[in-house]
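User: Hey, quick favor. My workstation is busy. Could you predict this chain's structure for me?
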Amino acid sequence: MSPDASSLDDIRSWLIERIAFYLEAPAESIDPVRKFVELGLDSVYALTMCGDIEDHFDIVVEPTVAWDHPTVDTLAAHLHGQAGNR
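Assistant: No problem, here it is.
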């Protein structure tokens, strides 16, 4: 699935679900405006998330994408914006 095939809300929801899975926390506890590091996401999970993004959306992202776009909302917007760059 490419980001252009997903709405911004779909991307945001997918990211929240993935982060909740990594952190073994309820999705409702993931605040989309808090920085990943504040949520407890470390560099290993950030790299894992990059791989999951690439697999799920069939795009290539930089390994630093989670640090360049450090919240669910900013990363979702970035991924959604990738549609215009294809």
